[in-house]
Amino acid sequence: MPFFLPLLFLTIVSSAAACDRCLHQAKAAFYQVESDGELRGACGYGNLTSELSNGHFSAITATLYGHGAGCGACFQVRCKNEALCNKEGTKIVVTDGNESSQTDLVISKKAFSEMGLSGKEELLIIEGVVDVEFKRVPCEYKNKNLMVRVEEMSKPPTYLAMKLLYQGGQTEIVGIDIAKVGESNWSMMARNYGAVWDSKRPISEGPLQLRFVLTSGFDGKWIWSKYVFPVDWRPGQVYDTGVQINDVAKENCPDDQCADKHWAGPVGA
Fold it and tell me: Which of 112, 133, 169, 139 is nearest to 262 (CA)?
C-alpha cells in the first residue's frame, strides 16, 4: 500500500508560530484508590502502568488524550500554591483519559505529593484539588527501545493487535504499516483503543517488519523497524523494535502561552 506521509498530518505550523511546548493552566487531583489508575486506564497499559511511569501515572483532559494519541506522553506539572508547592513539580506519564468536569488531571498520589515543599507533602494531599500549570516534555527511557506487546485478542498468524511501550521523545505515532520481512506489500494498521493498534485486514505470516509515522519538528517523519516479529509470534509476548524515538514535535500556541518563555520564572509567575 502506498505511503502518503503528508496526508497523516492535519496541521503544519511555521517556525515563527511554534515553540517546543505550550503552557497549560488546569486543576489537578490524585487517585484516591491507586489501583484505579494502575489498572483501569483507557490506554490499556494494565499492570505495566507503574513500570512504564515509575509510579507517576496520570489521566489527562480529553483534548490532550486525543482518543489515545496522547497515551504515553510525558508532562511536567507543578502546583501554583507557593505556600505548599515547590518550583520543579513532578513528571507524569499519560495512561488514561479524564472526562471529569471538576479537574483536568488526575495523577498518582506519589506524583501529587512530589509537587509539595519538603515537609508539606501531607498538607498538599489534604488540599485534594490544586491549581497547576503543566507542559509537555520528552519521555526518557534509559537503555529502552520502543517495544510492542502482542495482545491476547490477537489470532496468529493473520490478525495482530499490539500495544506500544516505552515510546520516547516528545512526539506521537500517528500511523503504522506492517509487512512481511523482505517484502514491500505494506498493510496499514489502525488504533483500536488507547495505545493498542491492530491489523484491519489479514496480514502475511511472519517474520514481520513495521514502519511508524511520527509527528516530528514542524511536520513528520517515518521510522522503519526492519525486523520485529518472528514467524512464531505469540500473544502475551513483548518484542523489541530495535529503534529509539527521541524526536520533538513543535507545538502551536500563542506567545503568552509558550512554556519556553514563561516556565523559567517562579511558580505562579
Answer: 133
Q: Which residues of the chain have pLDDT under 50?
A: 1-16, 267-269
Q: Give the type of residue at 91.
A: K
Give the pLDDT score at 220. 84
Position 189 scores a pLDDT of: 97
pLDDT of residue 6: 40
Q: How many Cβ atoms from other residues are within 10 Å of residue 156's Cβ?
A: 16
Angstrom CA distances, 134 to 16, 22, 24, 79, stand at 22, 8, 5, 9
Contacts 24+ apart (CB under 8 A), 8-13: 8/174, 8/175, 8/213, 8/220, 9/174, 9/215, 9/219, 9/220, 11/252, 12/218, 12/219, 13/218, 13/250, 13/251, 13/252
Exposed/middle/buried for residue 25 (C-beta within 10 Å: 0-12, 13-18, 19+): exposed
pTM for this prediction: 0.88
In this prediction, residue 257 carries a pLDDT of 85
Give the chain's domains with CATH numbers: 24-136 (2.40.40.10), 146-243 (2.60.40.760)
Asked if residue 209 lies in contact with residue 226, where contact means CB atoms within 8 angstroms, the answer is yes
Q: What is the pLDDT of residue 5?
A: 44
